[in-house]
Amino acid sequence: MSRARVAILVSGRGSNMAALIDAAAEPGYPAEIVAVVSNRPNAGALAVAERAGIATAVVDHRLFPSREAFDAELDRTLAGFSPDVVCFAGFMRLLTGVFIARWEGRMLNIHPALLPSFKGLDTHRRALETGVRLHGCTVHLVTEEMDAGPIVAQAAVPVLDGDDEESLGARVLTAEHLLYPRALALWASGRARLVDGKVVIDGLDEPPAPFIWP
């Protein structure tokens, strides 16, 4: 059985990228990582990918006169690797509608919050300020509206008394490293699919046991 070809977009150290690479190295995983592309030439993720024997490329956004020009080159670079799925892993760029339309339905992103709550940045600070008791992370399809695409999978993390942004963020990041490989496996295998604007997952006829906190 052929595996889905996955390209990963990164801007920084790439801890979620590393989790995907590790998962894809396991026998039977339904996806293979064929490329890592960064908009920052000094991104630590590039070295990690190279050590894993994965092809890398840089499309430095600072070298382009407009978002449209950058997106066109990013599109060309990605197409050269023929990916079935593009995973965003800390990729800090908002892409144009033309690019989104070109790849829509094939792009996954992980966001450090339980969407639709806390879209955008500073999610852990905002969760603490709001006083929620559950925080977490979400893997979703990328659409033109930021952090608003159909949800593939989520993981909940309790907010503990005494948490600060660092401690809560570390707990969420641990959950991200578990959730993203599982969500990619669901999508790459075809078990998760888009139906009428929502993601359905084959084999989940019974709901999981409820998680209650505290």
* Number of DSSP strand runs: 9
- Determine the number of helices (DSSP H or I, runs of at least 4 residues): 6
Shape descriptor reads: globular
**Percent range for helical residues?**
25-40%
- The whole-number mean of residue pLDDT values reads 95
User: Whole-number radius of gyration?
Assistant: 17 Å
Q: Biggest sheet, in brief?
A: 7 strands, mixed
Strand neighbour order, sheet with most strands: 3-2-1-4-5-6-7
Beta-strand fraction estimate: 15-25%
What is the rounded distance between the termini?
Answer: 44 Å
The stretches of 5 or more residues where confidence is low (pLDDT under 50) are none
Q: By helix and strand content, what is the structural category?
A: alpha/beta
Order of helices and strands: EHEHEHEHEHEEHEE
Describe the structure in your own words:
The protein has helices spanning 15-24, 44-51, 67-79, 97-103, 123-130, 165-189, and strands at residues 4-10, 31-38, 55-58, 85-88, 107-111, 134-141, 151-158, 192-195, 198-201. It has 214 residues and is of the alpha/beta class. The strands form 2 sheets. Strands 3-2-1-4-5-6-7 form a 7-stranded mixed sheet, with helices on one face. It has a two-stranded antiparallel ribbon with strand order 8-9. Helix 1 (15-24) runs parallel beside helix 6. The longest helix has 25 residues, at 165-189. It is globular. The model has no long low-confidence stretch (mean pLDDT 95).
